[in-house]
Amino acid sequence: MDGDTNEGGIDVEVEELKIQKHKKKIRIGILMGVFCALFWGIWYVPGYAVWDMSILSELYTNVKADFPEMDDATVGLIQAVFLTGINAIACAVVLFIWNGCLGKTGELKRTVVQFKSASKYFLMAGICGACAVSGTYIATNFISSGFAAIAGLLYPIIGTALTVLVLKQKVSRRAYLGITVILLGGVTLYLGTIAANGLEGSYIGLIGGIMAAVGWGCEGAVAGKALDLCEPDVGLHLRFIFEALFWCIVMGCLAVAGVPIFSTVGWLLDPATLFVVVLLGLSFGWCYVTWYKSFPFLGVPRGQAIGSLYAACAVIFLIIFFGPEFALGYTEDTMVMIVGSTIAGLIICLIGSYLLASEDTESLVSLRDDKPSTEGGESA
After folding, report:
1. Is 366 helix (H, G, I), strand (E, B) or coil?
2. Residue 322 · residue 47 · CB < 8 Å
3. CA 338 from chain center: how many Å?
4. What is the pTM of this model?
5. Is residue 378 over pLDDT 50?
6. Angle, vertex CA 133, rays to CA 140 and CA 155, nearest 5
7. In whole angstroms, how large is the CA radius of gyration of the chain?
8. Residue 363 per-residue DSSP state
9. pLDDT band per the 50, 70, 90 thresholds, residue 8
10. For residues 191 and 249, what is the distance between their CA atoms, to the nearest angstrom?
11. For the chain, is the Cβ count within 10 Å smaller at the N or the C terminus?
12. Phi, psi of 10 (to 5 degrees)
C-alpha cells in the first residue's frame, strides 16, 4: 500500500512539473511575442523615413532620366524593390554579428554547406518574406505606413490556415472565430481606404497590403516546420541571406535591362542614410529573432496572433514621429473616412488576434513537442 501511495505521489509531482514547465514556456513565448510587436512597430518609423531620403529621390530622378516614358507607379515599384533589398542585406549583416557574438558562425557554415530539408524551408521562408516586405513598402509608398501596418494584420489568417493544412495542427472554434473577426477588420480597413481614395488611385497599395499578409502568413507556417529541424538563430540568419540573394538577383536583372538601380548605392555612405539603414536592420532583425523564438513555445497561430500587436505599436510610433496626417495618409477631404476605417479596422483585428492568442488548444503549445523531428533531432 505504501508503495502504491508513493507511486501516486510521484505521479502527481511529475504532472505538477509538467504543468509548471508548460506555464513557463507559455510565459517565455508571450514575452517573445510582445518584444516582436515592439520591434516590428518601431521598424515602420525608419521604413517610412527612408522614403524621404536622397537615396530614393535620386533613384527616381535617374530612372526617369533614362526611361522618361516610364510612369511614376512603375518607378515606385522599382524603388520598393531597391529598398526591400537594402533592408534584407542590413538584416543579414545584423544577424551575422548576432550569431558571431553567440558563437554560432560555425553552425551557420555547416548548415549552408549541408543543404538539408530545414535549409530548403528557410529558402522558402526567405522568398515568402521577400513578398511580405516588398508588399509593405509598396503599400507604404502608394497609400501610407499606417495602412501597410494594419493590412499586414491579416497574416494570422494565412498562417493558421497553413498550419492546419500543412502542419496538421488542431485549432479550436475560438481560433476560427478570431480568424473571422480579423477578416472583418481587414474588410473594414480596405473598404474605408477604397471609399476615400478610390480603387483606381490606390489599387497598387491595396495589392501591396495583401502581399504583406500572404507573405508573412506563409512564412510563419514554413518557419514553423523548419524550426522542428534547425536552430532558430542560425535558421533565421539563413532566411535573410536567401532573401538578400534573391533581391540581389532581381536588382541585377533590372540593371542588365538598363535600369540604373545601383546608381545611388553611394548614398549609403551618407551618415543620415546609413543611420536609417542601420535602424532598419536592427529593428527588423530583432523583430524576427523574437518572432521566430515565439513559435516553438506557442505554436505558429498563437505566436503570430501575439505578434499582431505590432500594428498598434506601429501606428502609435508613426503618429508620435510623423504626426497622424502623414502616418495615416489622409487629406482634409478624406480624414473622417481614413481615420475612422483605420481605427475601426485596427480595433477589430486586435480583438480577433486576442481571440486567436488566448485560445487553449494543446497542439499549439510547442511545435517541437507535438511534432518531433523525423530525422532524429538532427539539425539542418
Report:
1. coil
2. no
3. 24
4. 0.84
5. no
6. 95
7. 22
8. G
9. low
10. 36
11. N
12. -65, -40
The three-state DSSP-derived secondary structure of 66-134 is HCCCCCHHHHHHHHHHHHHHHHHHHHHHHHHHHHHHHCCHHHHHHHHHCCCHHHHHHHHHHHHHHHHHH
The Cα–Cα gap between 261 and 256 comes to 10
- From CA 374, how far away is CA 359, in angstroms rounded? 28
Mean pLDDT for the chain? 83
Q: pLDDT digits over 222-247, tens only?
A: 877 777 777 778 888 888 999 999 99
Per-residue pLDDT reduced to its tens digit, 286-332: 998 898 888 778 777 677 778 888 888 999 999 999 998 888 888 88
User: For residues 180 and 161, what is the distance between their CA atoms, to the nearest angstrom?
Assistant: 12
**Which is nearest to 153 in space by CA: 174, 181, 130?**
181
Report the C-alpha gap between 190 and 218 in whole angstroms.
Answer: 21
* Beta carbons of 107 and 234 less than 8 angstroms apart: yes
CA distance 309 to 303: 11
DSSP 256-292: HTT--TTTTGGGGGSHHHHHHHHHHHHHHHHHHHHHH
Which of 19-28, 41-50, 367-376 is predicted most confidently?
41-50
Grid coordinates belonging to 312: 498598434
User: Rounded to an integer, what distance in angstroms lies between the CA atom of residue 145 and that of residue 45?
Assistant: 9
CA distance 179 to 164: 13
Distance CA(190)–CA(151), nearest Å, equals 8
The C-alpha angle 135, 140, 146, rounded to 5 degrees, equals 110
Residues 171, 159: Cα–Cα separation, whole Å: 12
